[in-house]
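Q: What does the assembled structure look like for these inputs?
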Amino acid sequence: MTQRRILVTAALPYANGPIHIGHLVEYIQTDIWVRYQKLAGNRCVFLCADDTHGTAIMIRARQEGRSEEQVIAEMQQRHERDFAGFEVGFDHYGSTNSPANRQLCGQIWQALRQKGMVSERAVTQLFDPVAGTFLADRFVKGTCPVCKAPDQYGDNCDRCSSTYGPHELIDPVSTLSGAKPELRQAAHLFVELERLHPFLDEWTRSADHLEPEVSNYLHGHFLNKPLRDWDVSRPQPYFGFEIPDSPGNCWYVWFDAPIGYMASTWEWCQRHGENFDLWWRDPGTEIHHFIGKDIMYFHTLFWPGMLHSAGLQLPTKVHVHGFLTVGGQKMSKRTGTFVKAETYLRHLDPAFLRYYYATKLSPSLNDLDLNLSEFASKVNSDLVGKVVNLASRTARFVKQTGLSATYPDDEALFARGAAAGDEIAAAYEACDFGRAMRLVMELADRANPYVESNAPWTLSKDPAQAGRLQDVCSVALNLFRQIVVYLSPVLPRLARQADELFGVPIRNWRDAASPLVGTPVATFQHMLQRIDPKDIQAMIEDSREKELDATSATPAAAGATTVPQDTEEALLAEPLQPTILIDDFAKVDLRVARVLAAEDVPDAKKLLKLTLSLGGEVRRTVFAGIKAAYKPEQLVGRLVVVVANLAPRQMKFGLSEGMIVAVGPGDKDVFLLGVDSGAKVGQRVH
RNA sequence: GGGCCUGUAGCUCAGUGGUUAGAGCAGGGGACUCAUAAUCCCUUGGUCGGGGGUUCGAAUCCCUCCGGGCCUACCA
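A:
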């Protein structure tokens, strides 16, 4: 069998937040695949890095009054600690803010220049004089120059669908500082991706680089029309690398992020005396990227385009996975299902999640659901009840004697297990881990009845049966070890524990094909605790963002009770805005209103249609995106706060004449503002 | 509204033209007592979302309708 040379990456986590169980779907999936490849005897290197550049990091650093370098250094430390906690075994973990990355960005940039792929043109852009930075389209709001709709983002109008530049907005406002932006010109650099259209058309369709679903999506959404030039520069200030031949400009974060894969490789090569070109310039190397479906666009169009232009090896395959849901719902901080890696590790064994994800993973980009009760029962019955139990119930009988010197007759159980190896291997290779786990559990389901029918506990009572007892236990323990070999990509710690039990390390997939004979057996140690549902509950509680009711929020009323621990997460997600004057606030006419009627808008996924009374005969119709959070009947009669002087907006389902105010990130986490009793309809908020 | 995915036992899912549709978990009955109240045996349970078509034969292929999910749009 020839040894393959395989380079594997998982997407670079952004240095703006901690790792959570959603991220872990990808890192666990990738780690399992890598461990399988290594066990199969292939040369495989697993590389990753923190993604550190961009406006978000710059803003955050300013907000926290420290340097970007301090922010990303701290986050990288946390990321690496979390990954280690889940046994995600990178061969190297770098950072996009590294000298190696800067240099490689420069090389690829040079190549793009030489191919004439880069064009420069002046972009007139709005500049925020208070924040001292140019404003990306989404950081500017104003009135649509075409239809005069207010409160539109800088790139296109929601109301009339016309597209324009942010400088064309009427009365633009920076969402960063609230300042009135100035018009400034800056030279931007563009990669003319359309010139690679024929290449990308071909690449995305050929050689199994992508699952058909992914390929179809790309052809339906992007490749069916000319590809737009890609703006890859950002004027300073910007946290990133300055472009050598374009002083004052940095590469956009999505330009240098994927190059981070190569930079991480380069650093790994330096440390291990490896030849970088062998990994990125040699057609004998396979390159596999594992990513989430949200970043398909960058990895299947821009990235291959960059590599192609620079004469580097293209990805062999881009593996795309879906998102995590918990109990069929999006992860939510309110319900405690937004579980950070470090929180999980405080309560549960990482092996549980690795196994559970493995049973759920397939090559498809469908979302994957974590069902907490299924999680507990699957881990407990499969791993503890079936697999570990095999060793737990037999090892002590052969502690004195060790395994039989020749492998006994076992009704061909071991041979059948060995024969299943190819099919299980194929499932791992195809990233169909769910299938691999099912096949392995079939082996465990056959092994326990063997123990049952040969009853070692009965044999142990009769000294004349000592040889028979040793044989039966040798079979059970070899079946156990065979299963552990097959599970070891998923459960590396269990493999190490088996190594200790048998004193013979599992090194290769083929270790499942030949039984151990004549070797000693150590004292059996517990390998996995069962999941106690209480621990899951505690983890969820720990993850739940505490809701404050009016009494506990008031120190006087709270009395001697403990002060709630409010985290800073919400503030970090949405930083405080710059100071405004009272006149600015006075422009917003907030009024108390009563919901007279609330009805579902059947064709809308997010909207409810509300009829509000501002007192007397003054009525307003408002469409509010709160369908997931409130039922119409819950709303009728209650008081809400409405922006009464917001310009009406034409929506698909009718005219919306205002906006009711609420907090929360959206979807189910939306909380309407109310007023304490005594307030009257129509009164203004001062 | 558009694109993609999906619908099989109470739950999670196998099963892409060929005997009487399977597994695990859960439920019921029994056994064992080595093992982390684990395990083993027996067992209940399905008009394979509905309808139509192709075929000697359909869970599987085609059409259509219905339900669910994701993306997108309408929105925060």
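The longest strand of chain A covers residues 118-128.
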